[in-house]
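User: Fold this; tokens only.

Assistant: Input:
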Amino acid sequence: MNYRHAYHAGNHADVLKHTILLAILDALKRKETAFFVLDTHAGRGRYLLSSQESQKTGESSGGILRLLGEPDLPLPITRYLHAVASDNPVGSVLVYPGSPLLIAQAMRDQDRLTACELHPEEAAELKTLFSRDQRVAVHFRDGYEAIKALLPPRIDSIRYHRGLVLIDPPYEAQEAEFPRIFTVLADIQTRWPQAHCALWYPIKQRRNLRPFFRKIASSPIKSALIIELLIRPDDSPLRLNGSGMLILNPPWQFDAAIAPALPVFKRMLGEYGASTRLEWIKRES
């Protein structure tokens, strides 16, 4: 409950996460039928980069701000930068859109978003942000628990067969988080098996993630893709060396679509010993 994303808005982890998020949404929009998105840990939706929290860490200077003005970027990064720019004056980034705002901006009239946030102040800001958008429902509740109530999604008698579940927890207690995440992912696959599922995770030391990935690989989950960016070696004593996204049931040819972004992120966001990873840990035969 103490976590505030305002300290980290627009950092290298957000760049990776939101580039991937928008690529998934664009894949969903290739079909005319409506889709539903559940954002389990939505935050406040919009972050002022001149705020005290953002200025204290300065993390956006190592993330979104490094990409501004760079020519000839791959399509996934260009798409991401256009989405951020649409919420800002021309040529500058004063505010950073969080995942629920990026999702809402990408949705069509027929699509729907439910955003869950457990921190009372963040949830209140989120409700205000979407108070006039009838496509978006904001829930002040635990996003994990909401899965049982909200999936498979049905709104106004309409059943949504396609969509995405975005899981982006604060990882305040990592040892307890991953077992719960595994249970949640299994529940999502049972309740809504045709949906895409995107899990963001921090990387301090990659070896600590191996038991979780082995468990995913040995589970009934049909397909799982890992996309990672380390801005420094994972034996660095610094707090966050990188991050990744685990995509369950990724869109068709999604690995090929996102691959061109990774060497650019390594070059532009990496500090020393940077690396990327694009790997199937389970692939549907």
